[in-house]
Amino acid sequence: METKQRDGGDIIYQKRKMAFIGIDMYKDTHTAVVMDCWTNKLGEITFANRPSAYDKFMADVKSLYGDLQPIFGLEDTRGFGRNFASYLLGHKYTIKHVNPAYTDAMRASAPMSRKDDSYDAFCVARILRDMPDNLPDEQHDDLFWTIRQLVKRRDSLVKGIIVAKNQLNAQLTYVYPSYKQYFCDVDTKTAMYFWEKYPHPKHLKDVQPEELLEELRQVHRGMTVKKVQEILSLSERNSPEEKDYQDERDLVIRSLVRELKFRKQENEDIDRELERLIQLTGYKLHTMPGINLITAAGIISEIGNIERFPNSDKLARFSGVAPVNFSSAGKGKDQRSRQGNRVLNAIFHFLAIQLVQVNPNGKARHPVFREYFESKLKEGKTKPQALVCITRRAVRIIYGMMRTKTEYKPFEKLVELNCHYDKIEL
């Protein structure tokens, strides 16, 4: 007991020498509140989110905390606050990342609801004072940050491709009622060449089969005479009458095709950069079944440096894979977590589905994981529960691969799957 009291006294003594600076961060300005260990507000500063304003801010804030040792708490260190966090790290200041959920909980616990920049910064400073040892240190790694930005850009492009493709399908329904019989998909290179040059059947009236075949073979060498004749026949039989403003209607289709081409090319460029940057991390996640380049990039962009997780249990809790215990008066049970990083949770969930899938011929894609999945079903677990078990095993394997930067090695026996992957060499 005396040791605990002495340790607590040491902590209080250390806090008495510290100044807690909470910063609420936005695109144009940041608001900082300086507080001592007794939650006394020493001052407040609002400054521009520009590198040229940082030196003046530091001079102003030093006049507030004096001889105290500063410690900074920042909510947004990946977005609007990244430049300022880099500035502080470059000047060797201690920075803690404050989860916005803590700030929301602090606001919700107040008797009277309040929401403004000053109070938000005060809440950050208060959390910083109460939890300095529990908050993670901010560590900037430009490699992982860049991978994250590329992944976000790629996700945006993919969403745009889906929207443009749906719009193109809708337009083609009007002008080519049988368009689904022309090509395997509306956004293949051959299909997009055809839609752009012939956005309406009227453009095919004087085109001979030999001429169209020669054109399409420049895009796709496998184009056949039979397919060309089928396209021309369907276009002639199902050709709608030309309507008013047809040139403007054609422009819509050509515009959608150009948009699809642009987004697809951008995606290819980003994929090449992601492949190069992932090699620089040393992680070999793509060697694991079910993980391709895009999945690996998504995992790495959300996890970042694996060294910030001391074991796979921490990673499982971070991704919302580990169960949460709800109990009272000694009674309760573990329930599925709805918290954690939901993007990473979704990636792990779909990976688990791929690991237990069975091919159309009845053969398991990954026999070891399938066997483990079926063993859990025999134990009485439901399929969703058994899938969570697979997800947890996958997280352990991924953690071990990232920690040791080694390739995936398939297991021959089910018993090996139950090893603790924090210690095993993969």
Textual characterization of the structure:
It is a single chain. By secondary structure, the chain is an alpha/beta fold. It has helices at 2-16, 51-65, 82-90, 100-108, 117-130, 142-175, 189-197, 209-217, 225-237, 246-281, 293-303, 312-318, 342-356, 367-378, 383-404, 414-417; strands at 18-25, 29-35, 41-48, 69-74, 94-97, 324-328, 331-335. Helix 3 links the parallel strand 4 (69-74) and strand 5 (94-97). The longest helix has 36 residues, at 246-281. The model is unreliable at 1-6 and 412-426 (pLDDT under 50).
Radius of gyration (Å): 29 Å
Total strands: 7
The number of helical segments is 16
Q: Beta-sheet strand percentage? A: 5-15%
Mean model confidence by pLDDT:
88
Order of helices and strands: HEEEHEHEHHHHHHHHHEEHHHH
Q: Based on Cα principal axes, name the global outline.
A: globular
Termini gap: 44 Å
Order of the strands making up the biggest sheet: 3-2-1-4-5
State the secondary-structure class: alpha/beta
Quick recap of the structure?
The protein has 16 helices and 7 strands.
Task: Name some characteristics of this structure.
16 helices; two-stranded antiparallel sheet; 426 residues; alpha/beta; 55% helix; 7 strands; disordered C terminus; 5-stranded mixed β-sheet; disordered N terminus
